[in-house]
Design goal:
This protein is α+β, with helices and mostly antiparallel strands. It has one domain. 33% of the residues lie in helices and 10% in strands. It has 4 helices and 2 strands, in the order ββαααα. The chain has a two-stranded antiparallel sheet with strand order 1-2. The longest helix has 12 residues.
């Protein structure tokens, strides 16, 4: 799927595409969109709601939304909208939904968002 990367200064750059032909990523709605749609908004930026809103609308109704969110939580993705949630929202989600004594976000539980 989409994966953020960093330049030499540690700043996020436009993500590169990594798609496993047998994985959930091939079914993602976002595969046909410019990756910058999901990574342009920066926390604290006034345009965050507008930029993330566009990405979230694409995520809404995606058949692999839960898989995408599970991936982002497990990989501790620090950039972009994944599974319809921003970085800040994923941190809040983990805070409320995962035990504090585990280093792995998913454990044996499956994440499912309300529709």
């Amino acid at each position: 799927m989409l994966r953020s990367s960093e330049n030499d200064e540690g700043a996020a750059t436009v993500p590169r595409t990594e798609v496993d032909p047998s994985g959930w990523q091939v079914h993602a709605r976002c595969r046909d969109y410019d990756p910058r749609t999901f990574f342009e908004a920066e926390e604290g930026n006034d345009s965050l709601n507008e930029a993330s809103g566009a990405a979230k609308r694409i995520c809404d109704g995606c058949v692999v939304r839960d898989d995408c969110l599970n991936y982002a939580l497990d990989a501790d993705e620090q950039f972009g909208v994944w599974g319809g949630l921003t970085v800040r929202e994923r941190k809040q989600f983990k805070w409320f939904h995962y035990p504090r004594n585990t280093s792995r976000a998913l454990g044996n539980a499956s994440t499912s968002l309300p529709r």
